[in-house]
Backbone:
């Protein structure tokens, strides 16, 4: 009882502080704007004096449009630099149409650092139930308002929809998704968990950015299928010193398809960034390291899925059941993309004389043969968790795109 009373008192204290802060902010709005400092005025005068020199045509006969072109080039360079800076800091893309004077300050994202024992096995007990309670107060304003709080399905944070709008992380088109899914089994991911790019360390992010620059990928821009394939060929040559095979190229086109669920022929920058971030984790992190990234809620969901598939309760399921479970992580998507039997027709038709077309049937036959042999392989709980961890992480974003296509 004493603990409950102390929590109540702390809540009341926080609410009182919030009222005082709100009143203080209202007082600041009514105050007249401060006068400019003399130094700032002098600097502005000097800037104004210099500007005409840069914009007036030169006497030696140079064209007046040269200075304008240089100015536009500088502006474009500045915009690109700001985009690279946001990418490095983990913000991904700048929220649009924000009135910064009335907005709360977005949090500073700190990239994780790998632990010494990061690659060591971690034991997750199958019979141990993990039901972590959600936080009592909003992550942003730290005020408790009961029914008005929306929980994250990945972590224990809760949020007010108004606070998310003030932060610039919730817009009118995403508000409906939040209110309709946050309190359902589908769930909703907060801005921390939705951005899987934040799982990368500084070193991993630097390496990914360098690859983007070498391949001339422009941050915050959409990619069409040709650009996506060109990038994949470049990465393959960098890592393995060889081009993608016909079979691998077909897989890349299938991945492009599920990254473009609306079939517009292009993928959004955020979806491409999340896909590549998961690719870095999949290639360079061990399975034990990926398991350590799972939250208690995600482990609980994986545990319930495994127990549901283990009908005879012997602690093992088949590899075929594992693949079904891996596809089930994307239950939030539409029926068309949920099965992952996607069509790549919107990318462009493949001619009958194409090598990809001639080799596709043979590759499918080989896949079917190997899958049939692997279908009845026995998989334990620990193996199931390690094999599925990357796909559980890939299902975090709220986007309908599938950022890492599971095996069929």
Residues:
């Amino acid at each position: 009882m004493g603990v409950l009373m102390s929590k109540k008192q702390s809540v009341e204290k926080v609410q009182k502080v919030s009222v005082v802060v709100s009143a203080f902010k209202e007082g600041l709005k009514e105050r007249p704007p401060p006068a400019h400092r003399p130094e700032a005025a002098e600097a502005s005068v000097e800037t104004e004096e210099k500007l005409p020199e840069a914009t007036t045509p030169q006497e030696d006969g140079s064209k007046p449009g040269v200075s304008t072109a240089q100015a536009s080039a500088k502006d474009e360079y500045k915009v690109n630099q700001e985009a690279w800076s946001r990418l490095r800091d983990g913000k991904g893309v700048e929220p649009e149409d924000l009135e910064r004077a009335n907005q709360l300050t977005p949090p500073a994202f700190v990239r994780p650092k790998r632990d010494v024992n990061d690659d060591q096995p971690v034991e997750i007990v199958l019979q141990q139930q993990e039901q972590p309670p959600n936080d009592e107060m909003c992550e942003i304003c730290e005020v408790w308002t009961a029914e008005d709080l929306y929980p994250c399905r990945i972590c224990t944070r809760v949020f007010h929809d108004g606070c998310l709008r003030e932060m610039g992380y919730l817009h009118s088109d995403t508000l409906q998704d939040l209110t309709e899914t946050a309190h359902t089994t589908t769930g909703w991911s907060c801005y921390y968990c939705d951005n899987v790019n934040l799982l990368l360390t500084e070193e991993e992010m630097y390496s990914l950015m360098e690859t983007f620059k070498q391949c001339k990928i422009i941050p915050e821009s959409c990619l069409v299928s040709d650009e996506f394939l060109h990038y994949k060929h470049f990465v393959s040559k960098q890592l393995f010193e060889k081009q993608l095979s016909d079979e691998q190229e077909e897989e890349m086109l299938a991945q492009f398809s599920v990254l473009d669920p609306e079939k517009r022929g292009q993928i959004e920058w955020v979806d491409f960034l999340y896909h590549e971030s998961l690719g870095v984790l999949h290639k360079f992190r061990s399975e034990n390291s990926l398991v350590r990234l799972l939250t208690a809620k995600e482990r609980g969901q994986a545990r319930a899925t495994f127990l549901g598939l283990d009908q005879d309760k012997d602690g093992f399921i088949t590899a075929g059941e594992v693949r079904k479970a891996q596809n089930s992580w994307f239950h939030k998507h539409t029926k068309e993309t949920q099965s992952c039997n996607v069509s790549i027709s919107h990318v462009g038709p493949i001619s009958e004389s194409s090598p990809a077309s001639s080799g596709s049937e043979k590759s499918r036959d080989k896949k079917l043969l190997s899958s049939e042999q692997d279908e009845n392989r026995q998989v334990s709980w620990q193996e199931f968790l390690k094999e599925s961890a990357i796909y559980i992480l890939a299902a975090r974003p709220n986007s309908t795109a599938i950022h890492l296509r599971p095996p069929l």
Remarks:
- Residues 1-7, 34-62, 92-104, 333-360 have pLDDT under 50 and may be disordered.
- The beta strands are 149-151, 158-160, 223-224, 266-267, 316-318, 378-380.
